[in-house]
Amino acid sequence: MDPDKKVTLEVVRRAEKELDSIPTMPFTSPAFKLLTEKISQYISNLVIESIRTSKRNRTDNISATHVEEASANISYRNRRNFSRHLGIISGILIGFAFSKMLIIINQGSVSVLDYVITAAFGITGAILLGFHMANN
Q1: Which residues span the domain enclosing 91?
Q2: How many domains, in total, are found in the chain?
Q3: pTM over the 0.70 mark
Q4: What share of residues in the chain are helix, strand, coil (percent, to 5)?
Q5: In a domain, 88, yes or no
Q6: What tens digit of pLDDT does each residue of 2-61 get?
Q7: Which of 25, 68, 96, 135 lies 20 to 30 A from 55 at CA?
Q8: In this structure, is residue 94 part of a structural domain?
Q9: CA dist 120 to 16, 41, 51, 81, 114, Å?
């Protein structure tokens, strides 16, 4: 077994053992089970990212600085994924609005509904693009 995986499993096992000794109140039994699963998942991700950070810095041991950096990387990665999705959706909406605008220009006679749809997609895409740019 990979030594990094072994360390990760050991840390998660110890954390789960500690969580077993905590009273479950005010959580329901299924809620507490889900909570412990999420904590275990976060701990596992944190250990793996700490190991990666330590290796990037070419050190043999994981320091508190590595753990802090790993924690920041994990939270930044989640925020970055959301921002990336906003950028993709905004690009699709703005692209649709531009293509619809070209159709309107070439057709000559168009309905009010075409203008409303084009404006709605363009404005929504612009707002999402603004959120995407603000997050980056």
Answers
A1: 79-136
A2: 2
A3: no
A4: 85, 0, 15
A5: yes
A6: 777 777 788 888 887 877 777 777 888 888 888 888 888 888 888 888 888 888 888 888
A7: 135
A8: yes
A9: 50, 40, 47, 25, 10
